[in-house]
Amino acid sequence: MELALTPMMGSSGLLPSGSLLESLIHVSNEVVSMEKLPFIQVRNISTMIRRIKLLSSLFEEIQEINTPLPPSSVLCLTEIFSVIRRVKVLIDGCKDGSSLWGLIQTEFISNQFYMIVKEMGRALDILPLSLLNITTDIREQVELLHKHAKRVESFVDPRELQRREALLQVMASNNEKNRKSQSFIDIETVKEVFSSIGMRSPLDYEEEISKLEAEAQKQAGTGGLIVVSNINNLISLVSYSKSLIFSSEESEKTNENIKQQPYASINRNLDQSSSSQSMSSNIPDEFRCPISLDLMKDPVIVASGHTYDRNSIAQWINTGHRTCPKSGQRLIHMALIPNYSLKSLVHQWCQENNIPLTECSSNASELERSNSKKKACEKAIDHISATKLAIDAVKMTAEFLVGKLAMGSPDIQRQAAYELRLLAKTGMDNRRIIAEAGAIPFLVTLLTSNDPRIQENAVTALLNLSIFYNNKVLIMAAGAIDNIVEALESGKTMEARENAAAAIFSLSMIDDFKVAIGARSRAILALVGLLREGKTAGKRDAATAIFNLALYNANKASIVVAGAVPLLIELLMDDKAGITDDALGVLALLLSCSEGLEAVKSSRVLVPLLIDLLRFGSAKGKENSITLLLGLFKDGGEEVARRLLINPRSIPSLRSLAADGSLKARRKADALLRLLNRCCSQPHNPVG
To answer: Vertex 110, ends 105 and 116: CA angle to 5°?
Structure first.
């Protein structure tokens, strides 16, 4: 099956999507047509298959219509493709893995199904059904699916929870001391639990033991000793139960059946070995490390956005190189970020082609000795082509939209900026690809547009792009900060102002940019203005941005001069604002500069507010409140002590915090109580 995306656009400016639809239909059919479903997660799996069957009808109808789709639809379908692939991997894991271990982890696996349904709902958020020429029935079914996905709750089968509890009780009693008596476990309970997950014959028990042993090896490197110990306990329980449940006659019969198949087993293992060796010559290029050309067993992403095998790139960096081997670009940091998506695909490819995961690190040349099982390889490559298709679709979409930003009319620019805003909302790869397509300079220019929607879409797109670390540098290099500050000061919509504040927060995550942004007094004044005029979300965005800038000492005085302190104290009294913890955090930072201390001391209402927050605030709020009180006491001395002591709630609140607060809060509360005690014990000179 050919899944390559044809790089071509229609006269209407729309992207072709036939190959993507073929991939969606293919992977949907793989899920829907699954046979021998597992005995665990029955409801979650069956419900998920029904959802995908419904989506498959949508894909087939769109394919039959055979008309090009707008870029936002391609984006949505690409996201759905990724979701369905994850569904397949999850169901395969339930089906091929240990049923007992799946029962132990029932809540975790149920939550994975829940998270996938929520991702499906988010993908459908941007599907423009009104623009698709589909039948009313399909539209209504997809709308119903969308509504259900938005309000769905995590489902954990109560019967599985009950079985798990029974199993855990049995495991707790399954130890060497109790084995002296054959009656130490309730064998009927064990038999009932095992039967409920499909273990009904000696061969089923042997197969489960093999799967548990494989799971123990898998967890040995990551799960810790306790997890491996629990799995070994399960293996012991299954082996022991097998000897109790089945008679010696049945066991002998089973052994005879096994003895009759040794050569078949050996031949099957040889076939699998041969098959795994034959894969090497067809290892997809996407899975080869650019340095070693071997299959990547632990792919990581470097600062340039390229992916390498961890061992290879680590050796490259450790020998003193500070550039990307593939692009030659200088690396602005040396962090190696795990590429979980690619790692999952590599593992899946290995499983589909019967290559043990331990062999994924084998030298490619060792695997290139055999040419058998070519069909299986071609099928695997089809899957990889589909994955590459998703990346190509994003790349083509980004390039197409950037062209519209550069040359289009205001109406086209508005739509293109909106599409880029959506595209940058999900996925680091999307954000990297959009930046590589050259979108950032055009978006920066559009920040000064007189069209409210163009400005709003541009600033929000830049905010979403800035989540990717490298893009922060590109945005600042494009001279964006002055235009972002202008949008913050006098944005055409409140959402534009709020997202400009959020963009400043995101950019100021880099220390050098805290300095550059703080050097612009307009930026701090505009943030304080939004703190005063904004809605709840805007106030929070402004407060978090101010907090980030205040981490650089030189910015603190500018924040105080801009009038932030009275506003922050006022927000402590405003329950509707909902940013008490943010305001306290900024005030605690500003206390360390002389201007901030004087401004905080001048407030007559702050101390009573802080005492109330010691009683009713969040854990973080209590910690910042005690920080402020301690700072004020050390500077204000007797006056602050007097105001604390005349309030009947202060001492009980401090004692409660000293007993039950966080480690920092307990330490600071103890210090303040000691200072108050010392103040009370000092003799007071008579006046006059």
So the answer is: 130
